[in-house]
């Protein structure tokens, strides 16, 4: 028997598709090594010229040795991608995918698992729906709830706002009310993706100023009094602001939505997972009343990029808005299927079954492990907050709701924070970024990886003295 190598010929059009054990071994060896790391290196920034030279001529008409190409990736590219999954990554919003989720993501790739429709991918849809149901139960959403996984919180917020808009338009049309312009109510702390989504869907915003970063009942009353609300169709609250980890008063937002007949959307892209912490659960009171909810598995649900869960109270409304009509798609829509097609619930069609990595990991690890990992992040934030309060050079800006800590270093300007960040990265001690709070540049630390230790935090704070 000739092996797969010897039958490969330079003219065989299927030569890229024949099994190649050597290639499998090569790549799996790399993956195995990476997954065996106790702590992924933070790595750093890229030098364009150096990378350009390394890549020069790599893609040509002729094949290249896979070991050579992988070697170039390892040597010149891999280290210029910051490891958001390092337990020393405290900037932006880190990532911390579980081993099980990373490995199953490889299964999703190796088996080309798509999750467009029930007809094409019933098993994948079942698994993803089980993960979505788990999240909906945690939020206390009704049995009617359902949704899909999209690429990220931005895509989730956009898809939800389209449904909010078109559902409102249908009602307004029936009542002879104007269809343009439409508006939503948001707080001054809403994520930038909300503004982008509003631009795309051509809706305006009534921005509610917050006294202290949290949209409270009082902020809502003050922010809405005297405003013309006749064109408002939705209110958006944030469960864990990206900048400060603050949870809006969700029941207050739900009350306002209910009273006015508005859509209630909660952006929990980062902070939704905080519900898993029993001590924090009460702060999410009202989240069960959402019309739509976004939570990113690739953030605090410990799944790989790129994955956001988008849940609707009534997925029929989303189906009515997002279903794509094309003759060649009739077959997936006409069969009498009780399950929704994931493709019909957001702005997408072809989609990777990107919820399955989360599904596998939830099943393999169990929810208690998720709870403990989320609690660890919140506790590390508490630890950092206490250290900051006991340091006379530092000032805590806000008691952390969740796992984001904002602080001020006396006498520092943006330049000092930049240097703090660069020095820590140069020493591979940590990746940190500053932010702005009420117009001032301040320090910010986000804890998400359960492998982060108090010693790592001490090392970061020591650089502030
Ligand atoms: C991260 C984040 C988003 C955007 O999510 P992506 O997955 O980056 O698209 C939206 N809202 C909040 C609150 C976030 O933290």
Q: How does this structure look, described?
A:
The mean pLDDT is 96. The chain is 41% helix and 13% strand. It folds into 2 domains: 104-365, Aspartate Aminotransferase, domain 2 (3-Layer(aba) Sandwich); 367-462, Aspartate Aminotransferase, domain 1, CATH 3.90.1150. It is of the alpha/beta class and 465 residues long. Helix 6 packs across helix 13, helix 7 crosses helix 8 (192-201) and helix 14 (367-389) packs parallel to helix 16 (454-462). Residues 93, 152-154, 191, 193, 238, 242, 267, 269-270, 296, 308 line the site of pyridoxal-5'-phosphate (PLP). The site of pyridoxal-5'-phosphate (PLP) has 13 residues, from helix 7.
Gist?
By secondary structure, the protein is α/β, with parallel strands linked by helices. The protein has helices at 4-7, 21-35, 48-55, 66-77, 99-110, 118-139, 153-174, 192-201, 217-224, 250-260, 315-322, 330-334, 356-365, 367-389, 414-426, 454-462; strands spanning 146-150, 182-187, 203-208, 232-238, 263-267, 292-295, 308-312, 394-396, 404-409, 433-437, 440-446.
Query: And the CATH topology of the largest domain?
Result: Aspartate Aminotransferase, domain 2
The overall strand count is 11
Low-confidence stretches: none
Strand content: 5-15%
Strand order of the largest sheet: 1-7-6-5-4-2-3
């Amino acid at each position: 028997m000739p092996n797969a190598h010897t039958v490969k010929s330079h003219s065989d059009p299927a030569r890229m598709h024949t099994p190649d054990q050597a290639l499998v071994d090569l790549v799996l060896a790399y993956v195995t090594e990476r997954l065996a790391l106790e702590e992924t290196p933070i790595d750093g920034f890229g030098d364009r010229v150096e990378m350009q030279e390394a890549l020069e001529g790599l893609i040509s008409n002729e094949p290249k040795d896979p070991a050579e190409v992988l070697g170039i990736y390892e040597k010149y590219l891999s280290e210029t991608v910051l490891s958001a999954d390092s337990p020393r990554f405290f900037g932006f919003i880190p990532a911390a995918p579980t081993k099980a989720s990373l490995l199953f993501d490889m299964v999703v790739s190796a088996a080309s698992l798509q999750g467009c429709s029930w007809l094409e991918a019933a098993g994948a849809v079942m698994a993803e729906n089980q993960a979505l149901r788990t999240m909906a139960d945690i939020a206390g959403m009704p049995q009617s709830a359902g949704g899909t996984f999209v690429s990220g919180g931005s895509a989730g917020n956009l898809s939800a706002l389209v449904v909010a808009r078109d559902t409102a338009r249908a009602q307004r049309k029936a009542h002879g009310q104007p269809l343009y312009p439409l508006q939503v109510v948001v707080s001054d702390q809403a994520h930038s993706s909300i503004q982008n989504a509003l631009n795309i869907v051509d809706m305006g915003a009534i921005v509610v100023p917050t006294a202290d970063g949290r949209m409270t009942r009082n902020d809502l009353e003050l922010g809405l009094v005297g405003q013309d609300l006749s064109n408002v169709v939705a209110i958006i609250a944030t469960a864990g602001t990206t900048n400060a980890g603050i949870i809006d008063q969700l029941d207050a937002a739900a009350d306002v939505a209910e009273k006015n007949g508005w859509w209630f959307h909660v952006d929990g892209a980062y902070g939704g997972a905080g519900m898993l912490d029993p001590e924090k659960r009460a702060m999410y009171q009202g989240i069960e009343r959402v019309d739509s909810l976004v939570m990113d598995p690739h953030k605090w649900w410990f799944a790989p990029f790129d994955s956001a869960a988008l849940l609707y109270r009534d997925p029929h409304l989303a189906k009515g808005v997002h279903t794509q009509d094309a003759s060649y798609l009739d077959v997936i829509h006409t069969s009498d299927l009780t399950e929704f097609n994931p493709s019909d619930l957001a702005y997408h069609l072809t989609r990777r079954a990107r919820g399955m990595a989360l599904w596998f990991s939830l099943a393999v690890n169990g929810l208690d492990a998720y709870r403990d990992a989320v609690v660890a992040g919140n506790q590390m934030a508490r630890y950092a907050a206490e250290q900051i309060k006991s340091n006379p050079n530092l000032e805590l800006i806000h008691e952390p709701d969740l796992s984001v800590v904002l602080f001020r270093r006396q006498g520092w300007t943006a330049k000092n924070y930049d240097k703090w960040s660069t020095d820590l990265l140069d020493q591979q001690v940590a990746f940190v970024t500053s932010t702005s709070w009420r117009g001032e540049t301040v320090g910010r630390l986000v804890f998400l990886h359960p492998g982060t230790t108090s010693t790592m935090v001490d090392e970061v704070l020591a650089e502030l003295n």
